[in-house]
Each structure stands twice: as C-alpha cells, then as structure tokens.
Amino acid sequence: MSHxxxxxxxxxxxxxxxxxxxxxxxxPGFIKSIDxxxxxxxxxxxxxxxxxxxxxxxxxxxxxxxxxxxxxxxxTGNVGWFLNGELNACYNxxxxxxFSTPDKPAIICENDDEAQSHVLTYKELLYExxxxxxxxDDWGVKKGDTVAIYMPMNSQAIIAMLAVARIGAxxxxxxxxxxxxxxxxxxxxxxxxxxxxxxxxxRGGKTINIKKLCDDALDNCPTVEKVLVYKRTGxxxxxxxxxxxxxxxxxxxxxxxxxxxxxxxxxxxxxxxxTSGSTGTPKGVVHTTAGYLLGAAMTTxxxxxxxxxxxxxxxxxxxxxxxxxxxxxxxxSLGVTSVVFEGTPAYPDYGRLWAIVxxxxxxxxxxxxxxxxxxxxxxxxxxxxxxLSSLRTLGSVGEPISPDIWEWFNERIGKDQCxxxxxxxxxxxxxxxxxxxxxxxxxxxxxxxxPFFGIDTCLIDPVSGKEIEGNDVEGxxxxxxxxxxxxxxxxxNHTKYMDTYLNPYPGYYFTGDGAARDxxxxxxxxxxxxxxxxxxxxxxxxAEIEAVLIEFHNVSESAVVGISDDLTxxxxxxxxxxxxTEGVNIEDLRKTLILQVRKEIxxxxxxxxxxIVPDLPKTRSGKIMRRILRKISSYEADQLxxxxxxxxPQSVEGIIECxxxxxxxxx
Length: 667
Ligand code: WTA
Prior knowledge:
Structural class: alpha/beta
Shape: globular
Distance between the termini: 35 Å
Bound molecules: 5'-O-[(S)-ethoxy(hydroxy)phosphoryl]adenosine
Helix content: 25-40%
Strand order of the largest sheet: 12-11-8-6-7-14-15-24
Largest sheet: 8 strands, mixed
Strand content: 15-25%
Radius of gyration: 24 Å
C-alpha cells in the first residue's frame, strides 16, 4: 500500500463550516482561525511542556500541583504526564460544578421507555455518587482496587463509574452486550473486587437478563466479594446470593451526605477498558487519571466547540470508549450537560433520536455511521417531524464515514447549517486523534482532516518501516510522540502493550490503521491493517471469533474475515473446515456455531455467514492466507494474484465454489 497515489476524489475542495453554525454559537469560538490552529498545533508538537502546562492548570482542579509536565517516550514505553500531581476525576466532573452550578442538569437520561426518563442536576449527581462511593467504601473497596461495572447505558452506569473514581478505585466497564464468558474473562483478568450491575435491562422494548448473565459468570470469578444490584425493572424473581449480592437502593438507605474524594496521583489508573486486538484475548487498556481527563476535556471543548450552556448528546454506549470520554468525562469535566440514551434508534420508532434532540434542544449530536446508515434506510419522514434547529455540531465516530453518508448527515440532519466532525481515534488514544475542529478546520466529506493538538501523526511504509514524507501518499498511520491521554499499559501485561503498539515501529505508536494523506495534508482513514474488524462500530478480533469456532468438537480449522456491508460497515464471514462431514446437518451446524459465538462473546460478534469448506488456503509454513478468503468473500476471486506459493493451491477453486453456493446475504 505504500507510496501509492491518493485517490483522485480525496483531493477535493474544502468545505468551510456553514455561516449558520457561527450564528448559533452562544459566544465566539475558542480558536479564531485556521492559522491560529496551525500555530497552536506547531507549538503543541515543538514545545509540549509549554503548551500543555497552562491548559492542565486551567481545565483541571488539582489537589496538589504537578511538578513536571511529561516524562518517558515511545521507545521505552514508560510514559508519564503531569508528574507528582494529585487530583480526583470525580471531584473534577461533579463536585466543582455541584458547588458552582448546583441546579444545572449534569445528566439527562432518556430511558428506553420515555416515561422513565429523568434529569440529574450536578447537586443531585453528587448526592447519588456519594451514596454509592460510601457503599463501596464500607465494603472495603480501596484506592487501586478494581471494580467491574456491567450496566446498560443509563444514568446509573455513570453514577457507578464516578463513585468508583471518587474513592480512587479503578473501574472496568464491560459492555452490556457481552456474554457471561466474556464477563468472566474480563473480571478475572482485572481481579475485580466488586461488581456493579442491575437486575434487568431495557432496550428496544425488550427485557435483558443482565443479572443472570453476571450470575453465570460470577460462579467462576473468585475475586468478586460483593455485587451491587440496581433495581432497573424491580423484577422480584431476580436471584440474589446471600452475603454477596446487595440491592443498591437498600444499601444506599444506610448512607447520606458527603464522602470526600480520594486524591490520586496523576499517573494512577482511572479505568481499564477491554478491547480487541489481533491476538485472541482481549486487552485491558489502562488509562491514567490526569492525562486522560485533560485529553477528554480538551477535545470536547475544542473539536466540538462546547460552551457552558451547550447540551451534548453522545449516542454511544458507556461500554465503549466513546461513552467514557464523550458521554461522561469530556462533558462533565467541563461542567456541561450530557444526554444519555438507554434505548435504540428504532424504538418506539425511527424518530426517537430526533425526538430527543428536539425535546432537550441538543446542540451537539455524536453518533456512529452505522446508526446513520440504519436511519437513512428507515426513511426520512420520521426526521421531518422534529425541529432540529438547536443543533450546531454533528459528530461521527468509530468507523469510516463514507462521503454519501456524510452528505446525508449534513443535509438531512444538519440542514446544511452545522459543522460535521468526523472524529478518528481509538480506545487506546483516550480522546480524538484526528478531527476537524468545529468552525475552524474546513471539511472534506469522508476525511477526518487534521490532527488534534499534541498528536504528531505520520505515515509509515510497512515494508521498509520508514516514514513517508510529503503529501499525496498512503501508508500505516503512526504517532511520533506521546500525548496526555494515551493508554499507558495493558493491564498486567506491559509486554503486550509494547508488542502491540510500540515495538512494531520502534519510536512510534502504531495505530493499526492504514491511511492516506492528500495534497492538503488531510488524513483519510482506510481501515485496519491487522486482523481487527469493525461491525456496526464494534471492534472485534477475528482471532477471538476463530477461537470460539474451533472449540466446537467437529471443527478442525476456521478463518474469519471482514467483508464490507451496506448496513453494518463490515460483516463477518467465517470459513470452517470440519473433521467429519458424514451425516452432518450443515444448517444445524451453522446455527450451532453462530449460537456458540453469540454465547461466548456476544450477539454483536455473530458471523453473518458461515462457509463450510474442505480445506483452508495455507502457506508452506502453515499460516492461513486470510487475504485470499477476503478476496473471495468480496467477489474478487478474479484478483487473487499469485497463489502458487500456497502449500495447497488446489484448495482455492473449492473455496470459491463453496462461497458461491453457501454465502447468504442478510436474512
Ligand atoms: C476505527 C472507537 C475511520 C479505526 C473510538 C480505529 C475510525 C478503531 C474512526 C478504534 C473514524 C474509529 N474513521 N475509522 N472516524 N473512528 N475508527 O477502539 O479502525 O472501538 O482503529 O474506538 O475504529 O475502535 P475503538
């Protein structure tokens, strides 16, 4: 992919932010011009200490000031920011606003059933958080302990996260779509002392057996001493294990008033978030307190152009990094209002998101392209029913946004009057890497544009490992120096951190994505260059899915690839070779395998199609050539290139045939 010329269409005209955006701003933007951006960016790269120190002092309240801005580098991996400073993330996100603007809404929670929706002011949030902190404190959860949170996206999840942070403990939120097996692995890997969950969840009008999924996991989680259960539905049938499980509301009755936040060091972990990589087991990405918080606050403020009176609606789940940074830590660290949505865009109808925007006069709306594709397909009459004129910035996250969806977002939702921010970043970056600063950086639909302050982006030739200079080039996207909100480690496995991110290209942080840089220096993210697929904005490891398939007794080998999909961005196709084919009912087998993936990982990881093949294409050293499978699955079997180096080139014809007979497009 190196040195190829960037696609012609990428060198298109730049589109400035519409005039109406500026009219809707409550006060002038923080950055006045593109020149000012370039100047600030240059300073952030050339003199990071001078650049970040005043911002860290301004945006964060410190219990003890930091003594040094930054230490360590990408070669050694011992990165630190704001050294020897002390602070508390919960204090920064709650207390200071509870004192200055107590009656301002902190969280507007739109529940699946609209009638249950509610608002928490900063004062109320502080009160609710303190109660949970006191329960945990009473249980003996201490600074540095890990607490798992398995909750749907609602205000209680946010309260739980803040309550953990308040006592200096480390939260590990597990996306509530994960199965028991995944909960167990994550809880055990992090040796969580407690778990916070709820009885049942509500999503799209359906009830989800959240506690039951936890119970199945907890049988094999020896470190978990106590479980706090929020009564979301109040189902009296819920199983509660004596001495282990306690109801949130009943415990909270024992406590009232205030518990002081525990000061932690800048570099103490704030949270773990498990994410998929090229290898099978998920990694517990470690984010530390000060640098992460500053990255969250800075990007929310500057990229979205968020002012005190703005209302940010991040329609992402708290189980992923987007929910952490842009539903919780970004907006609350700035004292603005965050809208949290428990349900789905399709319930009770496809107008739900727009109804929320109108109801709360949302100014900033942030969503994944996969939801936009769904909403576009659902038709436009639902959009036109609602007044969306409060909107000013529209954000896109999690996967590439194609120019046609970008245009649709801009025209149909933004009415050509908003700034569109295609934000490129990752769990590991903590906050935005590359995104057009609202009102400042002109857009090119489909490009995330220019890097944020402190993000020293470059492209590397994967063959030579050397940096590619100049514009109109493609390569592997890497970052040349540390930034405050970068992940510091992989939990209990720093070697994996080094091997995944810092050792592939020594001296650089490797993003795992390929990208192009056009004539204007704009970045166009091309997608993962490793074995990670992105299905509906969910990041999945093909190796993890393969490991589940292979567990089935009759499967001898499996290879999973991602193919492009109109609705979900990418979809999973699994190739499976069997030990025994005689007497096997293929349809039943397919169902069993899909069920197994749903059960072991979660429904969102289920393959769209399973192709049973006699053999998989392999190199002479026994490595499965997924590249060939990817081509076949994309109807590009005529472009396989040289297959003579395979140990079994004759397998290819058979696989092509199996694919054409068995591939089923969405049912
Ligand atoms: C992809 C989600 C193109 C990318 C915040 C990255 C994107 C992975 C974009 C991280 C974007 C995220 N354009 N691709 N705007 N945003 N990605 O950790 O491949 O769940 O490496 O973080 O999503 O996924 P993660």
